[in-house]
Amino acid sequence: MDLLIVEPIEPEVLQWLEARHRVRHAPELGREPRGLRQQLFNVRAVVLPPSVRVDEEMLSFAPMLRAVGRFAPGLENIDLDACVRAGVEVVRGASATAPAEAEFMLGALIALLRPGADGSRAAPGRELASATIGLIGMAPAARFVSAMLSGFGSRLVGYDPTLHASDPLWGRWRIEAMGVRELLQTADAVCVQLPYFSRYQGLLGERYLPLCKPGQVLVSTSHSAIFDLDVLAAALRSGRISGAWLDSVEPGLLEPDRPLHGIATLHTSPRLAGYTQESRVRGVWAVAHRLDEVLAQTPRVARDFRVSAATPLSGPVSMPGPLGAAVSAPAPLDDGAAEPLPAAEVSEVPAAADAADDMALPLSPAADAAAAPAPASR
Length: 378
Known about the structure:
Oligomer: single chain
Strand content: 15-25%
CATH topology of the largest domain: Rossmann fold
CATH architecture of the largest domain: 3-Layer(aba) Sandwich
Distance between the termini: 53 Å
Number of helices: 11
């Protein structure tokens, strides 16, 4: 079998794939772990729902596997390091949801900036034309956000840990590059769209959020682990951040024993930013085209399966772009280098690894202190 699809798929896309490869469509296997493992033995590519975890154990049942596809947004249930070591490509439509996410962020910004978002009219609202909007993370959606907000006349400032301040991308997208601290001190509203990596956990926390511009509003499509939740809760309760909208939250985030419980100015949604009919079709077609390329280019033999972390393989992680062209992110870097974001522009620019540069992300407070001899705004 060439391709196993364990997720609902549009009939026209399934027909297109069946005309080119030996395909089995079995969504029921997503609820049958044992049956799924049995089917993986001679499969060269598989499309899995977010509920199925892809890790070393699962990959060990699939010696011929060359690619794992994901129609849904997000990669939280995929062990990218294990896929790299096994030489298995991870394919998803990274930019397919970008227009939908941009529209969602724009709507959330307007809702938070206008009076009555928290049920009261104690303070007048703000217009986008006179606001400075900060973008943290130059994900594919950032280009669409930039175009929309430029039409309103907003001033745009941005930060990305993989882009140097001199990179021409900032000029092309009409965004002024800043360090993350300066951005938070300057912007009236902030859109966070950083793809989640473990080294970014708690990035927006004690070092930055208490210094943000008073009355700032915040919209995030990033995983909630990007934030230090205790610090975010304190900023919301004090009014330093007047309102926030989180679209990707971990289970139980608002339970009574959690920091964000009961905050009236916090709005959440269950990963709805990229969930539209149009983005679904774009994403499915992008993944289908890339899987077709992988199956056409790889032999029907078992791969050289190695799981030792000491000698990793340089397997790609691809994210098809708007026209279906895949962009591969490099294998994990050394701890001293900034980890690349899986965005469409990664292949065009080098990752920023200099911790002393204002646009480079410190990997730890200790590393930051070593890089800067005296405390200074970033």
